[in-house]
Write a structure and sequence with these properties.
The protein contains ten helices and no strands. The protein starts with a helix and ends with a helix. About 4% of the residues have low confidence. By secondary structure, the protein is an all-alpha fold. Helix 2 packs across helix 6 and helix 2 crosses helix 10.
Length: 209
């Protein structure tokens, strides 16, 4: 693989990553409710999910999943349901607006960090559109006669790293404006927008043929 080919792939990945999607909304949901640590843990879960899906695509497992209609449909419906579930959680928080009580309760709970990591991981690995993206983009930059599995893995992991860096940039921005975001009206609005977006992504995934 030449640097020219890698540079072209990198440009496409950056454009894809910059487009807001479920991963962005899940990170924002956790950053709003759990602060910098909550957003960071959710981002780590998302990156882990990207590594898993990218590895599956690079190693050929993704093709088997995509061609198995029952498995693919099951993954699709689980992913859609999970996004809708997360969306309703955010909408419920916006409707109630009792953020002081919620934050105090969350601080007393143990295992909250793992829950946020799990939300990021599951929202990614149960989204078959991520796998399809890998399967559609990676082959365009691989030459079966010359490139190796390591080349495919390098491209897949590049996507995971770039995606993780973009989430980190957004998280730092959210952390910088945390005082403004802490206002009850602003927080309710953002939770409402985030929740609506997650429900929309889940519905779109479920209805996609």
């Amino acid at each position: 693989m030449t640097w020219s080919v890698y540079g072209s792939y990198l440009l496409i990945v950056v454009l894809i990553v910059l487009a807001p999607g479920p991963d962005t909304m899940v990170m924002l949901k956790n950053a709003l409710s759990g602060g910098f640590r909550g957003g960071l843990l959710a981002s780590l879960g998302i990156v882990t999910g990207n590594v898993v899906q990218g590895s599956a695509a690079a190693l050929g497992l993704g093709v088997l999943i995509a061609k198995s209609q029952p498995v693919f449909l099951a993954l699709k419906w689980v992913g859609a349901a999970y996004l809708v579930f997360l969306g309703f959680q955010a909408l419920r928080g916006a409707f109630r607006g009792h953020y002081d009580v919620v934050e105090q309760t969350q601080q007393r709970r143990r295992g909250g960090g793992f829950r946020r990591f799990r939300e990021g991981l599951l929202s990614n690995v149960t989204n078959p559109k991520v796998l399809v993206l890998y399967l559609s983009v990676l082959p365009q930059f691989l030459d079966p006669g010359h490139t190796t599995t390591w080349d495919a893995l390098a491209l897949a992991y590049t996507t995971a790293v770039i995606g993780g860096l973009w989430l980190l940039v957004l998280l730092v921005f959210v952390h910088r404006v945390r005082a403004w975001l802490g206002r009850r009206r602003v927080r309710r609005t953002l939770d409402g927008v985030t929740g609506t977006a997650l429900v929309g992504f889940g519905a779109a995934l479920a209805l996609e043929s």
